[in-house]
Amino acid sequence: MANGHSEDFKCNAVRIAVTKGLTRLEVASDLDMDVATLNTWIKGAQDHEDTSLPEAGLVRRVDRRRKENTVATQGGRDL
What is the count of structural domains for the chain? Predict the structure, then answer.
């Protein structure tokens, strides 16, 4: 865990990136991480054909962050 992220976090971030229909930049932003790191993790997962499903809690966190970001970028206007 040299970079501060657990293996579970890495796996779940990759799963979100490949299953939620979001760009890698959106996922990285939502998780407060660098997109290059996410790209590296995705490449590694593709090499190992990791296909398990994302953890529900992390998916909810990303969804919540995306909503917060949308509100913030729209100046609090009603969605």
Answer: 1
DSSP string, 3-39: TS--HHHHHHHHHHHHHS---HHHHHHHTTS-HHHHH
Residue 62's domain comprises: 11-73
Alpha carbon distance 8, 74 (integer Å)? 33
Structural domain includes residue 78 = no
pLDDT tens-digit readout, 55-72: 656 767 777 788 888 878
Alpha-carbon distance 51 to 46, whole Å?
9
User: What pLDDT score does 54 carry?
Assistant: 55
